């Protein structure tokens, strides 16, 4: 299986492909509407000198966009999630549960939690698909 | 009891507790200890009418720069925004909340706006704040919500017609003054329903997917104290010793669920509150044994601990038998304290059940339930069992 450098567009493209070709995702996410951004706080010692902004747009089972973006676009998303690089890495490797990480202050969420809860299967599926991608992390390269 | 070998959690509980009959009068000293000089007192008309604010105002003297008493049973974003504008106009540098959950959540919202500015509608989310907020002293007048020690606030966004959740470590109250005299005049039904709110916090913390040893210990002691002293309070509200123990139990249960979180009982009770206006504590109390029965296969270990705390785990019982004994004991306890037992007794209709079940699936509490709940029909079945 190909390995991708995490936090790069090629890694995001692989993730998008995984989501787009997942029949299970399409079924689970048929009610999801809207964009989600992820903000990765800088951590120079771990190879993240500047913040990284990721923008994802989902609509009724389709994945419209997953891309690196600028701060303004990230902050325009329906849901904005932010956190330290190490936390995101733990989520992407399924070492921590994203909901727990939110409640314990390891990640931050701006947006309507009830919508996330109502669609928790969608959220979990998107993360599961990310976990299937073999990645080389900046602090492991 | 077994925890995962790779157990990892955050426990957060920074609130100072001041306990004892008459300690509400120490509010001025506690406030001075925080370096504050100008307090906004937040309360509601019922608490004002009961005369519970007078002593606080007397103790504060010139340190009180204003009283906001216009807090309804379910507070809203508009109310918080107006109260914060009033507090700013008065130059308040701290908030003293005197009341139950709605008052305390209003106080939490004001604290954010005094520090950050803007409207509360901009703060919907989780752990967004990056600095300590305006100091908040809480003097509860019920023994149930635990809100005096949690970082959460639930506030109605009137424009959207839905409640928003604000979870902020930086906005946890600095001091809770637990004065049993503040709950002395609470009528029996309110005493038992708020007490069952606390009991539900403790039981749900013990069954939560986020349970951990510190929260478990607090929840166990909360259950012991409620089991012993809530019936005394229901019988004789003037028993200040029992009142005090139930206040402490509610606070311990607050710490427990503030860290381990709650589950399906709360998701269903929140929904019944929104749809059928059933008071939160009453809905929790009625639903608790039914949700325990629903969760039994996935939460026997936690419920066996409930049985221990209730004193019904007998020698030789395995975990499941102890869990079943806990459910029976909770049912008996509800009867003993004169708590309503059926949803039909409190005005819930068939139509309310269908609407509430749909709403329950989007309540944040549901993700922490030990048995995953993704199907509306499962929730309807639990409501029907409690009907």
Describe this protein's structure:
- The complex is a heterodimer of chains A (141) and B (387).
- By secondary structure, chain A is an alpha/beta fold.
- Chain A has helices at 9-20, 23-28, 71-75, 85-92, 98-103, 113-118, 120-131; strands at 3-5, 33-41, 52-59, 62-68, 79-84, 107-110, 134-136.
- In chain A, the strands form 2 sheets. Chain A has a 5-stranded mixed β-sheet with strand order 4-3-2-5-6. Chain A has a two-stranded parallel ribbon with strand order 1-7.
- Chain B has 13 helices and 9 strands.
- The model of chain B has no long low-confidence stretch (mean pLDDT 95).
- Chain B starts with 15 loop residues before the first strand and ends with a helix.
- Chain B has helices spanning 27-33, 45-49, 54-60, 77-90, 101-116, 188-207, 213-235, 240-260, 264-276, 280-310, 319-336, 350-360, 376-386; strands at residues 16-19, 39-42, 64-68, 94-99, 125-126, 136-140, 152-157, 162-167, 175-178.
- Chain B is globular and about 60 Å long.
- Chain B has a 6-stranded parallel β-sheet, with helices on both faces. A 3-stranded mixed β-sheet of chain B has the order 5-8-7.
- In chain B, helix 6 (188-207) runs parallel beside helix 8, helix 7 (213-235) packs antiparallel against helix 8 (240-260) and helix 9 (264-276) packs across helix 12 (350-360).
- The A-B interface holds A 96, 99-100, 102-115, 117-118, 120-121 and B 8-10, 12, 124-128, 162, 164-165, 167, 169, 210, 261, 361-364, 366-367, 374.
- Strand 6 of chain A pairs antiparallel with strand 5 (125-126) of chain B.
């Amino acid at each position: 299986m190909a390995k991708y450098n995490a936090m790069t567009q090629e890694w995001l493209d692989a993730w998008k492909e995984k989501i787009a070709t997942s029949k299970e995702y399409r079924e689970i996410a048929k009610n999801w509407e809207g964009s989600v951004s992820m903000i990765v706080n800088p951590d120079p010692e771990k190879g993240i000198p500047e913040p990284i902004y990721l923008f994802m747009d989902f609509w009724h089972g389709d994945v419209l966009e997953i891309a690196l973006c600028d701060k303004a676009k990230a902050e325009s998303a329906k849901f904005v999630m932010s956190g330290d690089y190490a936390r995101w890495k733990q989520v992407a490797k399924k070492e921590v549960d994203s909901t727990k990480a939110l409640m314990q202050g390891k990640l931050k969420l701006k947006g309507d939690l009830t919508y996330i809860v109502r669609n928790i299967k969608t959220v979990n599926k998107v993360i599961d698909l990310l976990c299937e991608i073999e990645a080389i992390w900046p602090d492991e390269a | 009891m077994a925890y995962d070998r790779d157990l990892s959690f955050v426990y957060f509980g920074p609130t100072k507790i001041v306990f004892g009959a008459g300690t509400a009068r120490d509010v001025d000293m506690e406030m001075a200890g925080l370096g504050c000089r100008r307090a906004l007192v937040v309360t509601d008309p019922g608490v004002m009418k009961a005369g519970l604010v007078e002593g606080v105002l007397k103790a504060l003297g010139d340190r009180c720069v204003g009283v906001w008493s216009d807090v309804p049973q379910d507070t809203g974003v508009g109310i918080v925004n107006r109260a914060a504008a009033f507090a700013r106009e008065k130059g308040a540098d701290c908030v003293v909340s005197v009341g139950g959950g709605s008052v305390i959540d209003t106080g939490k919202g004001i604290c954010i706006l005094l520090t950050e500015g803007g409207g509360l509608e901009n703060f919907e989310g989780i752990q967004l704040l990056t600095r300590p907020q305006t100091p908040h002293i809480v003097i509860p007048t019920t023994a149930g919500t635990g809100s005096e020690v949690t970082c959460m606030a639930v506030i109605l966004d009137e424009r959207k017609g839905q409640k928003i959740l604000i979870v902020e470590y930086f906005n946890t109250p600095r001091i809770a003054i637990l004065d049993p005299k503040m709950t002395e005049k609470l009528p029996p039904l309110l005493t038992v329903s708020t007490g069952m709110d606390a009991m539900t916090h403790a039981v749900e913390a013990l069954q939560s997917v986020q349970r951990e040893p510190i929260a478990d210990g607090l929840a166990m002691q909360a259950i012991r104290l409620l089991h012993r002293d809530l019936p005394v309070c229901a019988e004789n509200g003037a028993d200040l010793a029992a009142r005090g123990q139930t206040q402490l139990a509610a606070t311990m249960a607050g710490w427990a669920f503030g860290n381990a979180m709650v589950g399906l009982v709360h998701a269903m009770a929140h929904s019944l509150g929104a749809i059928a206006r059933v008071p939160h504590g009453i809905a929790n109390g009625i639903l608790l044994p039914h949700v325990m029965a629903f969760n039994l296969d996935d939460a026997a270990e936690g419920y066996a601990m409930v049985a221990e705390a209730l004193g019904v785990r007998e020698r030789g019982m395995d975990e499941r038998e102890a869990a079943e004994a806990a459910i029976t004991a909770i049912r008996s306890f509800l009867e003993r304290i004169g708590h309503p037992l059926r949803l039909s007794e409190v005005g819930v209709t068939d139509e309310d059940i269908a609407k509430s079940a749909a709403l329950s699936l989007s309540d944040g509490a549901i993700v922490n339930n030990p048995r995953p709940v993704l199907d509306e029909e499962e929730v309807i079945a639990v409501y029907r069992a409690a009907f």
